[in-house]
Amino acid sequence: MTDKKLFSIVESPRHPDFSALYKQLGYTETRLGSIRKANAQLKKTLPDVVVAEFIYGYGSNYSGVHISNLDVFLVTLLKYNAQAKVIVIVDKAEFEFVEKLNEIYPLYAVMQHPLMAQQMSDMLAGV
User: Fold this and answer.
1) Which domains does the chain have, with CATH numbers?
2) pTM of the predicted model as reported, rounded to 2 decimal places
3) pLDDT tens digit sequence for 66-115
4) Could you tell me which residues are beta bridge partners of residue 110?
5) What sign does the dihedral 122-75-7-14 (CA atoms) show?
6) Residues 6+ apart with CB under 8 A from 4
């Protein structure tokens, strides 16, 4: 059996550490500390699943052009591996903004903080 590849894009301390769970479910996890590093890694490894936090672009860094921290990564992911499943973790206060992103870039699932290991396990069982 070929290992399934999973990217964890960890940009905040709230991102849950499910490394043991991913391993138990047969995933090879690549933990990445930024979108820039995730984009670079796409040129070397194509993930089956991506788990990342959604951070809405309130400030001028994303204003108008980008919705969130994930926009640029999702464009690159579609170029290299459009079949990858993207699981987004979002804070309750920003939940309403995820739909804007989902309209442009298809997301496999949107999960809300706080996220328990069993919830992630159930989600990955469907992949």
Assistant:
1) 4-125 (3.40.50.2300)
2) 0.92
3) 789 999 999 999 999 999 999 999 999 999 999 989 998 999 999 999 99
4) 88
5) negative
6) 25, 26, 27, 28, 48, 49, 127
